[in-house]
Amino acid sequence: MIWKTLSAWYRAHGRDLPWRRTDDPYRIAVSEFMLQQTQVDRVVPLYRAFLKKYPSWKALAAAPQADVVRAWKGLGYNMRAVRLRKLAEGVVADFGGRLPADEDALLKLYGIGPYTARALRVFAFRQRALAPDTNLRRVLTRVFKGPKADPKAFDARTWARWESTLPETLSYDVNQGLMDLGATVCKAGRPRCFECPVSRFCASFPKIMTMKELPRQKAARTEHVDAAGVPDRIHRGRVIEALRSGSVALGKFAGLARVLASLEKDGLIKRRGDRVLLA
Ligand code: SF4
Questions:
Q1: Which residue is catalytic, options 32, 103, 213, 223?
Q2: Are 34 and 75 contacting, i.e. CB atoms less than 8 angstroms apart?
Q3: Among candidates 165, 168, 180, which has minimal Cα distance to 122?
Q4: Environment class of 59 (CB within 10 Å of its CB; exposed 0-12, middle 13-18, buried 19+)
Q5: How far, in Å, from the CA of 191 to the mean position of ligand 1?
Q6: Which of the pair, 8 or 227, is modelled with greater confidence?
Q7: Is 223 labeled as catalytic in the residue annotation?
């Protein structure tokens, strides 16, 4: 059956990644935050350096936020550093420095949403669940619903039904295997079905290989851009980058009032007189 096949494929072909060599929930949580919006290859060296600096929930909770944002350099989307540090504060204050394994308790912690809660249950605590990340949604939608089904249309009841057929002992390997399959074989653009270990179970095979257009996985971004077409996200990253080495005169950020206001609102920066610095 499909779960056994996926698990065996992962055992034989899964990528060797540092967060797959640990069962420490802290290290696994750090990887989950980093992987949310950053490619695996980029994360690996930065993950190792971050853990050297902050080896535990306690170390991270005790660190000044500005230092953690500095250590996030190279990963982008700096709010994740703020969220991760706040999560560490919650784990230390409310759970004595041990991440809870229960989904309801996880969801009450700062910075943990439905995807991360499920991912932590699977990867940190080896529970039965399917973490609904982009790759898993795409692969499972293709496998169970066919080539025209929209992976964006998340249906919690259907997802729960798929989960209920997954043996708990295979949960970890299946989730990791689906991540790898989505990243290397069942890609968004053009799936490589002839290399796929689960093609015989797949409702999209072989039709998907001859389809001209596949359902789009990403909704169009509705992001604010400046007159040159540069989105706020890029400006936010540039401001934080400039502040990593110290405070900067407010005047250097002329024309970025809205970006500064949003960073201030998010608690990433603060103003001191006519200077701006990391919060
Ligand atoms: Fe994806 Fe093709 Fe494999 Fe189906 S057979 S899971 S569409 S790669």
A1: 32
A2: yes
A3: 168
A4: middle
A5: 6
A6: 8
A7: no
How much is the pLDDT for 215? 86
pLDDT of residue 217: 65
Contact 39, 46 (CB under 8 A): no
Q: In this structure, what token pair is assigned to residue 235?
A: 């400006």
Q: Is the pTM of this model over 0.85?
A: yes
Tokens of 80: 């994740």
78: its two tokens: 């700096």
30 C-alpha to ligand 1 centroid (Å): 30
Enumerate the β-bridge partners of residue 222: none
Q: What per-residue confidence (pLDDT) applies to 82?
A: 97
The region that residue 77 occupies, defined by phi over 0 for left and psi between -120 and 50 for alpha, beta otherwise, is left
For ligand 1, atom 2, which residue shows the shortest CA distance?
Answer: 193
Q: Residue range 225-246: average pLDDT?
A: 91
Task: Dump strand ranges (E) for the chain.
Answer: 248-249, 269-272, 275-278
CA–centroid distance, 138 to ligand 1, in Å, is: 10
Instruction: Indicate whether 1 pLDDT > 90.
Output: no
Is residue 218 very low, low, confident or very high in pLDDT (cuts 50, 70, 90)?
Answer: low
